[in-house]
């Protein structure tokens, strides 16, 4: 996320109606493409629930007082088969994108607690007004629900990712956004132990609730793309030092980046400077896939990359047309 300027327009707190909008559709009719028997999902369940907070079996507490609705989530899966066609519609999230707020930070000291709390409260209201994330983990390790999970949040912008079966474009609609109140360009550690613990139990809950694959838990720097210059990294938050292991995830920096091998995006020196060697490993693996696929088809790497870029534009256009059609169909007469 770009640096936040805290111009706060206070909205009323979430009403009983907009927070408790049923999520039955996303939980009962959504397609789950991997069986629990084949995946090692956490086992976390809801223990207590109110308008103020939710308590989960792994110790997670989610604050609900700022929760708001947005546009309901609905998106077609994109098959990674031979035709890369739009597949069945899904309503539940397929993954998690981790962000930093890049907001003002004070030294994390007891003497600064009151001011840290004030800055954090202003930040939460700013994010709420913009429907920017589903969850924010503040500097004291408190987890705040902002946009309810059944709806989209404006967190990922132009973005792509893929798992072994499906591709995803526009991760605002297909992935959840989890932001740490943090600033990466600082002489202080970006997050503290309380935030890491909160991220771990929150990730466990979300993976358990929505059958989210571990390889679909990634950082904004991995998924953000710039369609104009065809480069990765329009945003580069968490391009370095994301604590995958501490949060209970594999090091997804090393995953071959689908932006390269599926959609033909490249990268530049600015992106390399903002990321880390582990993430560069994922770039190398992706480039190897591009070379192998080009050779199999008798293409040069340059020509094959152009074909991937064309596929990206075609699929993005089809996705937007389908989304526009569905929005029109659901508008009241």
Task: Give me some keywords for this one.
disordered N terminus, Lysozyme-like, 333 residues, 8-stranded mixed β-sheet, 4-stranded antiparallel β-sheet, 14 strands, 16% strand, alpha/beta, globular
Concise structural overview:
34% of the residues lie in helices and 16% in strands. The protein has helices spanning 16-19, 24-28, 113-130, 171-174, 193-210, 220-223, 258-261, 269-273, 277-297, 301-330; strands at residues 46-49, 53-56, 61-63, 75-79, 86-90, 95-100, 135-137, 143-145, 160-162, 166-169, 175-180, 217-219, 225-226, 231-232.
**CATH fold annotation:** Lysozyme-like
End-to-end Cα distance: 37 Å
User: What coarse outline follows from CA principal-axis ratios?
Assistant: globular
| CATH top level assignment | Alpha Beta
CATH architecture: 3-Layer(aba) Sandwich
Low-confidence stretches: 2-38
Strand content: 15-25%
Order of the strands making up the biggest sheet: 1-2-3-8-7-11-6-12
Please characterize this protein's 3D structure.
The chain has 333 residues and is of the alpha/beta class. It has a single domain, classed as 3-Layer(aba) Sandwich (Lysozyme-like). The chain has helices at residues 16-19, 24-28, 113-130, 171-174, 193-210, 220-223, 258-261, 269-273, 277-297, 301-330; strands at residues 46-49, 53-56, 61-63, 75-79, 86-90, 95-100, 135-137, 143-145, 160-162, 166-169, 175-180, 217-219, 225-226, 231-232. The strands form three sheets. The chain has an eight-stranded mixed β-sheet. A four-stranded antiparallel β-sheet has the order 5-4-10-9. The protein is globular and about 65 Å long. Mean pLDDT is 86; it is low at 2-38.
